[in-house]
């Protein structure tokens, strides 16, 4: 099997893939999260994508991929995220900092404390290190493994705003795999009408069935201003199949998968 992730080697996604891959599984490095969804769909493989961070919130490219492709969620993982500031230059020589936009948000307090620097966004934390290695008077917000890989000295460790910085990752696959006893399910509510009480009615169905929501996030439906879809995750310790049937009576739904929480072993 092959496991598709955001590359180049050294991203957090890649670090997670290294931890969870099967012994004979290869890692396929993709340039963007969108490309991970494309590879999973075209090659019938599995992939790993970041979906939300405790500090910076939802990862738009992943939410769009879930909405726009037939990929299904088959597991979730939580990973502590530590950001590193790496450069071949001293602090007073640095003029440009490369950072992934999610990491920029997660380390904005440290980055704000740097004076007279320009920030350039990149496609991944590893790409940031790659760029900083090439450009004069530059630094990167990166992972420990990418700093090592590109031979960039660490100027400061743990530059994330919060010491409890965590990113939730999803395993996605091209087919539906329903585990015996899933921990959670994810759906997208796609409202077919705009009327008072629609969202209230949807949430009431969860409440009446005693089903606990673990996340609700609105995202523009891309059909015009003020039009939204709602990403919902819920626990599956109570009968949820009938509840989903009831939801379908009042709203459009896309089922994204029911899955296990897989904890990471060090
Ligand atoms: O660039 C990386 O290292 C990634 O794996 C992507 C990503 C993300 O998009 O959320 C993953 C974890 C961190 O939250 C920051 C960046």
From TrEMBL:
Ranges where the Prephenate dehydratase domain occurs? 2-174
An annotated GO cellular component of this protein is: cytoplasm
Where does the ACT domain start and stop, copy by copy?
187-261
Give the metabolic or biological pathway: Amino-acid biosynthesis
- Do you know which PROSITE patterns this protein is assigned to? ACT (PS51671), PREPHENATE_DEHYDR_1 (PS00857), PREPHENATE_DEHYDR_2 (PS00858), PREPHENATE_DEHYDR_3 (PS51171)
| Matches recorded under InterPro entries | ACT-like_dom_sf, ACT_dom, Preph_deHydtase, Preph_deHydtase_CS
- Gene Ontology molecular function, alphabetical: prephenate dehydratase activity
| Gene Ontology terms: biological process | L-phenylalanine biosynthetic process
| SUPFAM superfamilies given in the database record | ACT-like (SSF55021), Periplasmic binding protein-like II (SSF53850)
Which keywords has UniProt assigned to this entry? Answer: Amino-acid biosynthesis, Aromatic amino acid biosynthesis, Lyase, Phenylalanine biosynthesis
Q: Which domain of life is it from?
A: Archaea
Output the Pfam families linked to this UniProt entry: ACT, PDT
UniProt cross-references to Gene3D superfamilies, sorted A to Z: 3.30.70.260, Periplasmic binding protein-like II
What range does the record give for the signal peptide? none
Name listed for the protein in its UniProt record: ACT domain-containing protein
Species of the source:
Methanomicrobium antiquum
